[in-house]
Design a protein that fits this description.
Layout (H helix, E strand, L loop, with lengths): L3 H14 L1 E3 H8 L3 H13 L3 E4 L2 E4 L14 H4 L4 H13 L6 E4 L3 H9 L6 E4 L2 H10 L3 E4 L3 E3 L4 E3 L14 E3 L4 E3 L2 E3 L7
Parallel strand pairs: 4-5, 4-9, 5-6
Antiparallel strand pairs: 1-3, 2-3, 7-8, 10-11
């Protein structure tokens, strides 16, 4: 079973310490040695860290790799604010009254809610912040995916399929990403990957 919370904590520890042994990680994460070794192998196979003899080191980002640990939603909200608002305004303009859309959680997609106030949409989202704003300031029908609430990312996710996503027909999906490259869409947060 993939433990995304432990992956995020492990990557943060490596980012703060640069290099840690398996034994140090066992103590810091309160997990068994075999579990830590499996986690390190899984993360290394995705180029999120570099394995060393007896431990791992923080993987320095390069042109083709994002940093493995993102900052919190609150910290990212004001980064590139003007660009995010412009993107959010444009994206909201693509939503036609009466249409059904999916809006994934993220700082740029969160800003879409402001520009959707006059629209009547059917919205499926995993962001309780987007859902709250749409409920408060629009006439849209809002469906919120259930699951575990992740404070740092300000969204809800479920390891189990709730079925609602399969019942929701939508012509458009809006999602935030950390970067776009020749490799495709890229994300820095291990939980979101």
């Amino acid at each position: 079973m993939v433990n995304r919370g432990r992956h995020a904590r492990l990557l943060k520890l490596l980012a703060n310490h640069e290099s840690l042994s398996v034994e140090q990680l066992v103590g810091m994460l309160h997990a068994s040695t075999p579990t830590i070794r499996r986690e390190l192998a899984w993360l290394a196979s995705r180029n999120l860290l570099t394995r060393t003899r007896g431990g791992a080191t923080h993987r320095q980002p390069d042109v083709h790799c994002l940093p493995p640990v993102s900052t919190s939603f609150a910290n990212r909200l004001n980064d590139n604010l003007a660009s995010k608002r412009a993107i959010a305004r444009y994206a909201a303009g693509m939503c036609e009254d009466g249409s059904s859309v999916i809006i994934n959680g993220g700082t740029t997609t969160f800003m879409m809610a402001e520009f959707l106030t006059g629209k009547h949409l059917r919205v499926l989202t995993n962001s309780f912040l987007i859902a709250r704003d749409l409920l408060d300031f629009s006439a849209s029908e809002v469906m919120l995916l259930g699951g575990t609430l992740y404070r740092e990312q300000q969204l809800m996710m479920s390891l189990f399929d709730s079925g609602i996503a399969h019942q929701h027909d939508s012509a458009k999906i809006f999602m935030g990403i950390s970067a776009l490259s020749p490799r495709g869409l890229m994300e820095a947060d291990p939980l979101l990957i």
